[in-house]
């Protein structure tokens, strides 16, 4: 009876979250605080955070990078899954939003594990490549401005070791990717990357319909 992915009704989504969420008090508090922000919907869903945490543990990642940190929800899910001597590099341009993230990293005891780079992420990623850090990362999460998604994907792919994993967020973009009347820059950029990843021989790949859609790519 499972030839296709289930249509997710609100009742079913509530059930999924109620019966599977392990969101702790700190992440819950961060979600509540972020809800006050007019851009709160940029934060990843709790079930997605739990999924990222599981993936990072599954591949035994020690060195990770996040492109798009906002108030820190996904970074905590990722950093919590790293060993105590693991490292997460966070890329963002907003001092205001990441000051909230820094406060929660401190409360979570994760400050030592996380290195925030406040600069356009393409510059940060290129800087890491220039420093000779290609093929040294185990995990990358891409969740910043959509226009630059292809650039983030290409740079992260170079930074990843073979067998490393990239997770790309918002690949279903609220359903807009499947609506041909929507032709804005962000939607077109996501569509283009989705298409590219489908036939990209450098990766093994799956698109997962969790939250706003997450593409997973393992570097060959
Ligand atoms: C969707 S939010 C990230 C959400 C975050 N992953 C979470 O779990 O809450 C996107 C973030 O990307 C950042 N951003 C936008 N353009 C950027 C750029 N060129 N370089 C780095 N970060 C950027 C924004 O400041 C914002 O915090």
Question: What does this protein look like?
Answer:
- This protein is an alpha/beta fold and 220 residues long.
- The chain has one domain: Rossmann fold (3-Layer(aba) Sandwich), CATH 3.40.50.
- The protein contains eight helices and seven strands.
- It has helices spanning 10-20, 25-34, 46-58, 73-79, 95-107, 121-130, 149-159, 185-198, and strands at residues 63-67, 87-92, 114-118, 137-142, 160-169, 203-208, 214-219.
- It has a seven-stranded mixed beta sheet, sandwiched between helices.
- Helix 3 (46-58) packs parallel to helix 4 (73-79).
- The longest helix is centred in the C-terminal third of the chain and has 14 residues, at 185-198.
- The protein is globular.
- It starts with 9 loop residues before the first helix and ends with a strand.
- 39% of the residues are buried.
- The model has no long low-confidence stretch (mean pLDDT 97).
- Bound molecules: S-adenosylmethionine.
CATH C-level label: Alpha Beta
**Hetero groups bound?**
S-adenosylmethionine
Number of helices: 8
Task: Give the structural class.
Answer: alpha/beta
Question: What are the SSEs and their pairings?
Answer:
Elements (H helix, E strand, L loop, with lengths): L9 H11 L4 H10 L11 H13 L4 E5 L5 H7 L7 E6 L2 H13 L6 E5 L2 H10 L6 E6 L6 H11 E10 L15 H14 L4 E6 L5 E6 L1
Parallel strand pairs: 1-2, 1-4, 2-3, 4-5
Antiparallel strand pairs: 5-7, 6-7
Helix pairs in contact: 3-4, 6-7
The chain binds S-adenosylmethionine.
The site of S-adenosylmethionine (SAM) has 20 residues, from helix 4 and strand 2.
């Amino acid at each position: 009876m499972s030839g296709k992915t289930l249509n997710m009704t609100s009742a079913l989504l509530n059930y999924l979250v109620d019966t599977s969420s392990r969101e702790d008090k700190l992440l819950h508090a961060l979600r509540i605080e972020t809800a006050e922000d007019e851009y709160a919907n940029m934060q990843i869903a709790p079930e997605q955070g739990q999924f990222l945490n599981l993936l990072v543990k599954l591949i035994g990642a020690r060195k990770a990078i996040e492109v798009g940190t906002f108030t820190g929800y996904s970074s905590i899910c990722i950093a919590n899954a790293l060993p105590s001597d693991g490292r997460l590099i966070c890329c963002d341009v907003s001092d205001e939003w990441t000051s909230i993230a820094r406060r929660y990293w401190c409360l979570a005891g994760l400050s030592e594990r996380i290195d925030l780079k406040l600069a356009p992420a393409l510059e940060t990623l290129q800087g890491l490549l220039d420093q000779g850090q290609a093929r040294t990362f185990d995990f990358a999460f891409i969740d910043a401005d959509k226009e630059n998604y292809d650039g983030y994907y290409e740079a992260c792919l170079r930074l990843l070791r073979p067998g490393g994993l990239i997770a790309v967020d918002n690949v279903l973009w609220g359903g807009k990717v499947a609506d041909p009347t929507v032709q804005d820059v962000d939607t077109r950029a996501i569509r283009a990357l989705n298409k590219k990843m489908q036939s990209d021989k450098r990766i093994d790949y799956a698109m997962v319909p969790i939250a706003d859609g997450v593409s997973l790519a393992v570097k060959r």
